[in-house]
Amino acid sequence: MSAESSSAGGGTPGSADEVLRRAATTLLGRLSTLVDRAMERLRAEVVHYTSPLLAPPDVARATYEALEIAVGALASPERFDESGERAWAVGHRRATQGVPLLAVTQAYRIGASVIWDALVEAVLEDSPEDAPLLVYAAGDFWRWVERDMTLLKEAHRERTLGLPPDDGRKLLPALKALLRGHSDPLDLSGAAVILDLPLTGRYAVVRLSGADATRPEGAAVREEVAGIQLNWCPYPEGQVVVALLRDRTVEQLRAVVPVGPGSRGGVSPVVDGLGQLGRARDLAELALGTCRQDGDMVALDERVSAGFVLSRPDLADELVTRTLRKVMELDVADRRLLMDTLEVWLDCQGSAGQAGELLYCHRNTVLNRLRRLERLTGLRLDRPRDLVDLALALDAYRLRAGTA
Questions:
Q1: How far apart are CA 222 and CA 257, in angstroms?
Q2: What was the pLDDT predicted at 219?
Q3: Is 228 helix (H, G, I), strand (E, B) or coil?
Q4: pLDDT tens digits, residue range 148-172?
Q5: Which run of H or E residues covers position 123?
Q6: CB count, 10 Å around CB of 389?
Q7: How far apart (Å, rounded) are the C-alpha atoms in residues 373 and 28?
Q8: Which of 64, 243, 287, 310 makes the best surface tag, with the fewest CB within 10 Å?
Q9: Calpha distance 131→123 (Å, rounded)
Q10: Torsion from C-alpha of 377, 380, 383, 389, nearest 10 degrees
């Protein structure tokens, strides 16, 4: 029973059990207050939870769930086993996240203390005449706490022993906090020490997504490849790689981060320090969104316009509607033919001859298709502003169709 686990049960003599059940039932309506108390003490008393760079991102939710289980078990003894199961699960999860056992047990005791203090308050408020019975309940309550703490410690040790020595558990919490955009100057200095990375330097972020977006077998959480330090970080539906480039380029980074046939990758532009990693991750996500097919690794530097469109999907839809309205009314095959022709012509720097070779048609056919596109849109490809609108509309069309 704690800010991260729970404990409950029965066995106190006489009506002491009933006193605890009534008090716990009252506390079920005050869970948000208990969570606030527990979180305040966690952040004040447990060093690991004080720093946003180290504290688990789910600590508030986990605290609420743990206290609900603990108080619920006191109110309904049939839920007693839930507290032990919760303690074991918390021990495993926090070990995986790299939270030290001392910090987890401190959090556990804080939660138990918050619940006990609240139980005493509830009895004194509602039935002060029953307060002496709490003497009988206290022994059992703290024995339940010790039972769950033993389960939590054993689960933490078991999980820790089963993890490889280079799994990066001490690095990942700080790295994830930076990727979420944490940039407090004092915490950044601490992160630089924790991660053994320069506070300022040339960094880039790679966002990988898809079935094959995993750290390569045999690769360490931190590895040196071709003069680039790669820091691998598990992320929802894939991986993030924080790269210390030193004097290397984004193009060289793309060459050393593998992307499989079932995954895609987006690479941020270069940023100038740890405080910019959150922004770099956002830009890498934009680059990822512009990938056209699995196996692509796209640098945002080469898809800036598509990234710009992707960042505002509402404006992208408006651009397609305003610019390509008559084109969108064509049948699918006809529409695709015109848009593919425009894209190839743009990729060929406006050369109808080269575009014709790639499209297996005569240059005049390319020109005829482009003139038809001009008639339908009312725009002209030889006018710079019209050309920009059409190029952006093409990106918006591709992104909306999922074929960026």
A1: 13
A2: 74
A3: strand
A4: 999 999 999 888 887 666 566 667 8
A5: helix 101-126
A6: 17
A7: 66
A8: 64
A9: 6
A10: 20
CA 100 and chain centroid, separation: 22
Q: Can you say how many angstroms the Cα of residue 48 is from the centroid of all Cα atoms in its chain?
A: 20
State the DSSP H helix or E strand holding residue 232, giving kind and residue range, or none if neither: strand 228-235
What count of other Cβ atoms lies within 10 Å of the Cβ of residue 63? 26
Position 212, amino acid: D
3-state secondary structure of 32: helix
Distances (CA, A) of 187 to 234, 244, 277, 296: 22, 19, 14, 35
β-pair partners for 267 = 206, 299
> CA–CA distance from 123 to each of 11, 19, 30, 71, 164 (Å)?
18, 7, 14, 14, 49
Tokens representing 256?
């050393």
Q: Is the CB of residue 19 less than 8 Å from the CB of residue 54? A: no
What is the reported pLDDT for 353? Answer: 92
- Both tokens assigned to 278: 């959150």
As beta bridge partners, residue 45 has: none
**CA separation for the pair 284, 279 (Å, rounded):** 9
What are the residue ranges in the chain where pLDDT is below 70? 1-14, 163-170, 186, 218, 401-404
> Terminal CA-to-CA distance of the chain, rounded, Å?
50
CA 267/CA 214 separation, integer angstroms:
16
Helical ranges in 162-290 per DSSP H: 172-179, 185-195, 250-256, 277-289
Question: What gap in Å lies between CA 133 and CA 17, rounded to an integer?
Answer: 9
> What local confidence, expressed as pLDDT, does residue 358 receive?
93
